[in-house]
Write a structure and sequence with these properties.
Order of helices and strands: EHEHHEHEEHEEHHEEEHHEHH
CATH topology: Spore Coat Polysaccharide Biosynthesis Protein SpsA, Chain A
Number of domains: 1
Distance between the termini: 41 Å
Strand content: 15-25%
Number of strands: 11
Structural class: alpha/beta
Helix content: 25-40%
Oligomer: single chain
CATH architecture: Alpha-Beta Complex
Length: 266
């Protein structure tokens, strides 16, 4: 069985599209869906009662929180309720494309050392997004968050972090974006759950690092494609103004501090 976890926070329109894409493209795979929802609104409960999902109602479970508990907490609570041998973790802004899930299942089956697979993420206009990376350094964070990214030094740091290589080739990578992660349940039992000290951002980086630490590979699988409505709430002005006025930027920087302190990589 496959467990599909959808993390959701007040975007019911996107959640509906995500659910619809799963049901339309799951094919003959036995599955269950767990929606882990922060600051649950009644519209979410109403949504899964809609006619389009009635037939699959017994496969959909909703775990609700009255407040925003953060991404890692949502994922962990859902994993504890999962019955699948493999777990597909999705943000609600992901659309499943035909064949993508089966390709990840097949790859995981044929490669026992693989712990996490990240699919190729596409914009809704079919442009490839950056979804796999090198482990971050302080220089890379500064280059992404300040004017230093426009300098030769900053561009070099960013290119290394973003792994500016051929996106059509599957490969081993340091970490993949948590927006869509296909994870071996057996590996989770050994590695452990996500670190809930990260409220938002870098919990996926930290998790992938721990998988590598436990001799599980992290793979970018280009043949498995999904669409992603990607809106970077932590980057509005693309400058130091984000640090001053954007709370998501401050959350990101706080997560970076926790990450570097934990791994002592500053």
């Amino acid at each position: 069985m496959l467990t599909i976890i959808i993390t959701h926070h007040q975007t019911p329109v996107l959640l509906k599209l995500c659910l619809k894409s799963i049901i339309e493209n799951i094919e003959d795979i036995e599955y269950e869906i767990i929606i882990a929802d922060s600051q649950t609104e009644s519209v979410v409960k109403d949504l899964i009662e809609e006619k389009i999902f009635k037939k699959e109602k017994d496969k959909i479970k909703l775990i609700s929180f009255s407040k925003n508990v953060g991404y890692a907490k949502l994922v962990n609570v859902a994993i504890k309720s999962a019955n699948g041998n493999n777990i597909l973790i999705l943000n609600a802004d992901i659309l499943i494309l035909k064949g993508s899930i089966q390709k990840m299942i097949d790859f995981m089956k044929d490669n026992p050392q693989t712990g996490i697979i990240g699919p190729q993420l596409l914009t809704f206009s079919n442009k490839i997004q950056n979804s796999y990376f090198k482990f971050p350094t302080l220089g890379a964070i500064l280059a992404r968050r300040t004017f230093l990214g426009k300098l030769k030094w900053g561009k070099k740091k960013l290119n290394k972090f973003l792994m500016q290589e051929e996106d059509s080739i599957s490969k081993k990578v340091d970490w993949v974006q948590g927006s869509a992660m296909f994870v071996r349940k057996e590996a989770i039992n050994k590695v452990g759950l996500m670190d809930e000290r990260y409220f938002m951002y870098l919990e996926d980086t930290d998790w992938c690092r721990r998988f590598w630490q436990n001799n599980y590979e992290v793979i970018y699988l280009s043949s498995a494609q999904m669409s992603h409505y990607y809106y970077r709430v932590s980057k509005k002005w693309n400058s130091f103004l984000d640090v001053l006025f954007n709370k998501y930027t401050r959350i990101h920087l706080m997560s970076a501090f926790k990450y570097f302190w934990k791994w002592r990589k500053i």
